[in-house]
Amino acid sequence: MASKGKAITVLVMITIVVFVLVYLGITFTSDLGKTKTQVTSEDATKRLDKLYKNITVRTEELIKGQIDLDPAAAGDSLPDISKFPISVANTTDHFVEIFSSTEKSGTGNDGWLNEVATDFNNVNIVLDGKAVSVKIRNIPSGTAADYIRSGKYVPDAFTPSNELWGEMVKANGIETLLVSKRLVGNVAGIVSTKTKYDELVDKYGSLNVKTITDAIADNELAMGYTDPFASSTGLNFLVTALESFDSSDLLGEKAVQGFERFQANVPFIASTTLQMRDAAKSGMLDAFVLEYQTFVNAPDLKSGYVFTPFGVRHDSPLYALGGLTQDKLNILKRFAEFVEQEKYQSLAADRGFNGLNDYQSELSAVDGSLLSSAQKLWKEKKDGNKPIAAVFVADVSGSMSGEPLNRLKESLLTGQKYLGRENRIGFVSYSSNVSINLPIGKYDTNQQSMFVGAINSLQAAGGTATFDGILVAMKMLQEELALNPDLKPLIFVLSDGETNEGHSLKDIRELIETFKIPVYTIGYNANIKALQSISSINEAASINADTDDVVYKISNLLNVQM
Fold first, then answer.
1. How far apart are CA 425 and CA 411, in angstroms?
2. Per 3-state DSSP, what percentage of the chain is helix, strand, and coil (rounded to 5)?
3. Residue 284 near residue 145 (C-beta atoms within 8 A)
4. In Å, how far are 195, 237, 393, 416, 535 from 425, measured between CA atoms?
5. Which of 279, 300, 366, 394 sits in a 20 to 30 Å window from 322, CA-based?
């Protein structure tokens, strides 16, 4: 009996082991042949579905709105010029106003021109019996060019970072006169890690834009650059890259094909230099573009990085605009002479300028109309002909009532002109609950009309469940990607306050990381840390906007990313 009992016990144990092995085998083989990413993605999808079930989601009736088929004009969204500060005020009634690029009219090492202009105003210069002075306005070169070209605000003079913007202004029919080819020396360059620099030099013999574009096209280099619509360095890089593909025809078939092959492997285009620097710090980039003056003043780039100059020099030319009176032109010429003094050029060197004076521009003069065409080409080809699927997520909580909601509507109605017919667009709004105002669909005239209708129908009330809104957008995009896996997914979120209902950032952070969906966020009249944190997960931009400039900032963001 004892031996029979032992036999039964052994049989039971064997049976249990067999069941365990069978279970483990099923579990193991269900993941066999799958990458870790696939398994993680499946887990994330299950978690997304679980979180989604906890959200009250309403699908709104589709409403068509009236659409404006005229293309977006540069001046439509520009805020009042007062949004860009006067960094040096005029001290006399007879003066010239100068738009200045930000690397020389800001603060600290970026405030060199302000120091010079302040001294100019303090020495009591008299011309033709009149005391004269200058007014400096701190404004990015690309934005300044938009004001001037659109005619919304034309100052007396313009000193952009490089000559490319001056050529674009001239091509728009604005009367320009080059007063000084160089106020202060600077160059654009590619900043690469020392390790990657040595690796590329060993293979190609040298590092320049041609070898950089070849390395990127061959997937040997992860590099980022800045928006060529707004950034002087970004525009310089774009034109130099096109020239490296075909120096005889920057927009010819050979150049376009070379650009497409190169751009397909560019992992990152930054809206701002700061965003790009943050991406570089994260370790995702081997190289990025930067001006030399910024490079030498950056403590974190002091060691382990190499600067390689490219393109046209960034010597801050000075242009008179709009046919100045002789009196104003005389003030401008006198200021240009004042700037050239050894005292101020030495001060510039202390601020990081005038550092690579031996570098000669490797790009010949480019006509302004050609530059505008190069920007358009970039916008068409920057995603490698890969359509985008984007969901807009709008905060319509009670705090958005009145003027904030009106400006939100205006910004989206203006920005929607940049979305692109080949892309797929959806729209979500949220307060305490979430509404799907427009399911994702190709942005044809019909979808555009319903997008406009969805925006016009928005009403503000309730709490702020921002992360619920993002979860719904992610769910919509995952379903769309299941049907069209080649799409590039994006989310745009606009909110005016901290989340006070629904899910938390902690709940969704890992989902955003796993799905790798860039989430662009706009803090509206608010500096929202959680939104900035979300954007940083996949190197998207986070923008702070207020009632006065939200239309312009959203339009700019969509122009770049869509």
1. 16
2. 45, 20, 35
3. no
4. 41, 30, 11, 10, 20
5. 366
| Inter-CA distances, 515 with 23, 192, 269, Å | 29, 29, 19
**Cα separation of the two ends of the chain:** 81
Condensed to tens digits (0 to 9), the pLDDT of residues 140-188 reads: 999 999 999 999 999 999 999 999 999 999 999 999 999 999 999 999 9
Beta strands, E only, 277-421: 287-291, 305-313, 318-321, 388-395
Q: Model confidence over 185-239: pLDDT tens digits?
A: 999 999 999 999 999 999 999 888 889 989 988 888 888 888 898 899 999 999 9
3-class secondary-structure state, position 467 = helix
With H, G, I as helix, E, B as strand and everything else as coil, classify residue 323: coil
For residue 258, the tally of other CB atoms under 10 A from its CB is 20
> Quick one: how far is CA 181 from the chain centroid?
29
d(CA 166, CA 192): 29
| Residue 221 near residue 308, CB atoms below 8 Å | no
| Residue showing tokens 């800045």 | 226
